[in-house]
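Here is one chain, start to finish.
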Amino acid sequence: MSIVIVGGNECMERQYREICKNHGCKSKVFCKYRAGMESRIGRPDLLILFTHTVSHKAVHCAVSNVPHTTDIVRSHSSSQAALQEILESYPR
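Its structure:
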């Protein structure tokens, strides 16, 4: 399963990747908006938006560039526990 995470804390980017890897998922993490993000998102199975720590521009870019088959989960918290809870509740 492929996952794209938009938002979160930059210092936790490595932990987000490790948590996804431990759940058997490939992940891309965009903690803030970067030029060319539209083309690097790809076609993930799951898009996770950490809404408290992300710009509106990054959210709009992510949501408008994923296919309609991608599930989108929004979480106000960007903690490790929140990510683990999302991944455990999402069917593989």
